[in-house]
Amino acid sequence: MARITLEHLAHSYNPAPKVEEDFALKELNHDWIDGEAYALLGASGCGKSTLLNIISGLLIPSQGRVLFDGRDVTTAPTADRNIAQVFQFPVVYDTMTVRENLAFPLKNRGMDTAEITRRVQKVGRMIDMEAQLDRKARGLTADAKQKISLGRGMVREDVNALLFDEPLTVIDPHMKWELRTQLKQLHQDFGHTMIYVTHDQTEALTFADKVVVMHGGRVVQIGTPQELFERPAHTFVGYFIGSPGMNLFDAEIEGSQARIAGASVALDGHYTAQGRTQVGVRPEFIRVAAEGAGIPARIRRVEDVGRHKIIRLEVDGARVNALAPEGAAIPAGADRITFAPEGVNVYADDWRISAGGEAA
């Protein structure tokens, strides 16, 4: 296992980058703590795979350094980094059996035969392929082959890090939850540093100790699932995480008040904000009302999804979502919304600020 340090790291596919927009990966400084499980989360093209490939050694960055436990490995080949990487699409040896595929990285390191047998049997059980260990990989389904790839990554217990690049893309949906659970158990058992790339928030939030959210080549927030949900540091985090995502309201911020669609909303402190100012509120913290103060709103429809109701509204021409418990009654004639104070976030030019105008 290793502590992975990124120093002033950035990458451009342009051989002569001149401005920040030329960089697919904007400058990043971060320590990946030894033994933690991380998820790189973001939409396609945000720089997740570029960052993972720099860490693995498949790509040399345009600037900055990568260190494993303080050792500079920026230009070191993948083989010298002692990592295991699982890619989006399966990479297996078709002429080998499942057992031989799983044993291959261990045999390459001259491991004792009895220990190889023990580890292969264990991983075979984990990926639910124990009964197929002596079957040739040729002819297996794509999801079965990807399970072999995952198993080959799991079979080594001495790696500095395990890197996963959207490994469950081709896996049958029924198997995804089970494999995520097994990866989590593997992490708990062996304490490997794990970095898992995905665009699926469910995968990220259920797998990782810390989620690294990326947008436009930039890391916009690193935090626990709870931190990302309760205090999104960037409007993209609020939008991307949650179903439905966070609502954003254009607002005029005046000290301890926000003015939204002609109505005043009390804030939790005195704010000094410049630029484009917005208030972000997750659907869980929006209440629908038929009388009293509030922001004018019109209910478009109500969707009962079993665990709760999604109330689709329109506020000043913009779509807004609110959540209500399954058995909750929607007030007759409801024409306004209010916010639970603990769920209100204030943003200036997309970045969350705290009372006083400081970046949060």
The counted number of beta strands is: 22
Q: Specify the overall morphology.
A: globular
Name of the level-1 CATH class of the largest domain: Alpha Beta
What's the CATH topology name of the largest domain? Answer: Rossmann fold
Distance between the termini: 32 Å
The share of residues in extended strands comes to 25-35%
Domains (count): 2
Order of helices and strands: EEEHEEEHHHEHEHEEHHEEEEEEEEEEEE
Quickly list its features.
single chain, 360 residues, alpha+beta, Rossmann fold, OB fold (Dihydrolipoamide Acetyltransferase, E2P), 2 domains, six-stranded mixed beta sheet, four-stranded antiparallel beta sheet
Provide an overview of this structure.
The structure is a single chain. It is built from eight helices and 22 strands. With 360 residues, the protein is of the alpha+beta class. The protein folds into two domains: 4-240, P-loop containing nucleotide triphosphate hydrolases (Rossmann fold), CATH 3.40.50.300; 247-353, Beta Barrel (OB fold (Dihydrolipoamide Acetyltransferase, E2P)). Strand 17 (298-304) and strand 18 (308-315) form a beta hairpin. Helix 2 packs across helix 3 (113-126) and helix 2 (98-108) packs parallel to helix 4. The protein starts with a strand and ends in a 7-residue tail after the last strand.
